[in-house]
Amino acid sequence: MFEKGYVIKGKHATYMKFLSATTEKLNKEARVAAVFRANIDIYMVAPLIGVAYNLIADEDKVSEDDLSIFAEAIINNQENLTYIYRLVMLSEKSVGLTNEEKIDRAFKDDEEPERLAKNMELFHKYMRGGVEWLYDQFTEGATTKDDYFTKIQEIVENFKLDFSL
Amino acid sequence: MIIKSITLYNFRQYKGEHKIEFSMDKDKNVTVILGINTSGKTTLIQAFNWCLYEKCSFKTREVINVEVVKALTINSVKEVSVEVVLIHEEKEYIINRTQSFTKNDSGNVRASRSNINVQFKESTGGMQSIPKLKSGSDQDLYIKETINKILPESLSDYFFFDGERISDINNRGDVVAAVRGLMGLDVISSAMDRLDPSKASSVTSKLSNELDIGNDQKNIKYKTDLEKAKKQLETHQQRKKTAREEIEFFERQKDELTALLLANKDAKENQKRKINLEKDIEIISKNIVSAENRLRNDFSTSAMKFFALPLIKKALLVIDDAKQDAEGIPEMRAKAIEHIIARGYCVCGCDLKKNEGAKENVLHEKSLLPPQHMGTIIRTYKQTYKRFEREALGFDAIIKDDFSNYQNNITLLGEKEDALSAISKQIKGRLDVEKIERDYQKNEKDLKDKRELLIKIMSDIKFTESEIASLEKKIESLTLVSEKNQKLTKSIAYSRAVYEWFKQGYDRQEREVKEHLLESVNNIFEKMYHGRRKVTINEKYQINLITMVGDEATSTDESKGLESVKNFSFISGLVDLARTKARTGSAIESEESINIIGENDELIVSTEAYPLVMDAPFSNVDEIHINNIARIIPEVAEQVILILMKKDWEFAKTALENKIGCSYYIEKNGNSDTNSSIRRT
To answer: Does A52 fall in a domain?
Structure first.
């Protein structure tokens, strides 16, 4: 689990590029929000947001854009990614599982390749849902660097309100 | 001198005969001649210069109309002529210059020497010609003298001038000669040169040299030494003059630079502030980048825990509900226990095949481990998620803090940028103060060097003078008593006395001329230019502007126009001076002030006059100053002839409307560059 690279396709790749400062590092001219330090940071946050707001999205086949999260980045963050994966599996309720079943899915499916693949796909659906949400949040009424940085604070504040944190 | 008319015949563009009669009315003393480019405006000035002095500044030296030359048939003759009629000292003069052109057999056009005739009207009404010399190199000598008495050639450029070249008018070397000539000072000056006992070539020196001191070699050597010393003294005097001129130049520079520095004092402060602001902006810009990075990094690092919070809440509920968090060996999995049982001995070394009790204990531990039992792993996760919750606690505060730090820097940057832009606007168009300061320092050094040089030259002069005096004394003591020597001594004494008398008179008169000219120029300048500047005049009669303290610095655009105003003042001052001379016979002897502007700002009008003929006078002047100049000039000069383009006339018109005696329009015939005519309007 989380031992190799992952390729994000279609519009979600485009969105992620817009959110990541890596894009800016590669191309100084790129007019992007660059609110996350790296692609992997988005890859970790997005599924959590997807579950929190119950947003899922299938892989986009319309756009041909793609973006690789490199194996090195994933392995470096393997521990946290695993925590996130189990968290998603424990807390999402798309298929009406009992709590026992949720625990089994979160912890016991690791050694069952088919089940694991199914779970990973679910994880990535939430990830894509989360990326869409982030993209919407950061582009709504924002065009300048100043706007994008202002949005960070707004998003944090709104998330706090939405979930009574 | 007042110009009555000019008649051009085949002169340049003016094919055939064209006559302009100028206004001689005392009140309506302005004649306006309007024309478009290349219609022949400048040609009119050239016609005056050609007729009076045979001067011509065209690239092609031929003054005859091109079309007339083209139409010349072989062996035929065509003439070009200009006739000027003027009144000088109540006498009417008719000055006519004619030149003929012939085409020879081989088709070449040849020009004859031009022929000048000057006639004047006797008080009886009859016409009298100025005679020509029958022999000698210059047959027109009397005619030239007559014309030079009316208007010296060296001054003609001031009275017939080209406005496009007005900027040169005061910078020329011949200003001194012109002013001195006009005032009659040049005659005294050359007389002084002839008598100056310190000059080896003077009459006085020559007389001294003739004194008989016998034939003794030693005595004769005194004479040659004296001659040498006098020549050396002349060289020293020349060096002194040059050094003085240089010192004067550097002093003038110093005045100008000081004025500039004073006027730009605030600019220096602003420059400093600008540099500081630029530094601040650089630092703040860097701070903004760090603030951005900090916000982005803090957000990226901890967002995971923060956004996990709602999920953790739910997950913990799921875990607690399943009651699967009983304690097993942390990080241990069932497969590890199976491995231990299979190999038959425990990690402590106990043989599990022989010790059933131990095996049971190990199997119990296995039941507490995943995958069969998730207790241990779930407990670990539960703790980690709880840690996440704790760690996410301050996240929003950190983000808030980072953001406000970022925002403060952005605001600060905006403020500094606004201030910079305001200061840049103020500084824009200002001079480079540091450069002025460098120039000032350099000027100071040059001035010091030249002053030291002058002191050295002065001591050289003193030494040579005492050498001359002692040689003269020696020679005097050796002078034999003879009739010839007595006569010579007497003559020497006379020539010395006359020299002293001239010298005193000359110094006084020159001082007066300069004072009068300065006063007159300044008065006129103040009328023309509404700024806090004054005019100074140096030994060479060159005028300079002094910027008054606290005034704004002059930008380059302005200075050209200002230069024109300055030179207009100079010309007007000169006209004024000349007029006073004409009125009184000699300005020098007049006790009356030559100031043309009276106490109550009214202009003193006199009866004698010099004309001002100006071609394109307003080329470099803005409309406000055109108006001022146009107002003053007809008051200063008693006759004004303006040759200009319509667009410049528009601005001058209002000021001159009541002054126009007559006006003309130059038209190109069939839009030809070689055929124009003059029409009275």
So the answer is: yes
